[in-house]
Amino acid sequence: MMHGVKLIQYLIVTCMALFFARLIFEATPYASLYQVAGLGVTCELLISNLLHFVLGWVFPGVLAISLATALVLAVRGPRPNRIAAVWLVGVVTAILMIQYMAHAFRFSE
Asked: What dihedral do alpha carbons 106, 104, 89, 71 form, nearest 10°?
């Protein structure tokens, strides 16, 4: 198997893992920590904000690196790399669409 295909497989798994980690984090502990009112700033809130900040910057960064890698491998690679690059672009596009819809649904209530 080509090195580019393995790299793209790794990037697909990383993008999906970060997507699900962010989705689970925002759905469970992040949401429940902010439902406590009147207690002031606690350690959990600070850790929660820090994790939300890191996931908010790492996730789009990995997606951008994935798209740049797909572009490079699609232009300069053999046919298996081009096919894998198309898969990577498809996965990143699907993740962005689902993330946009989840974000729009979350703030529409």
From this structure: -110
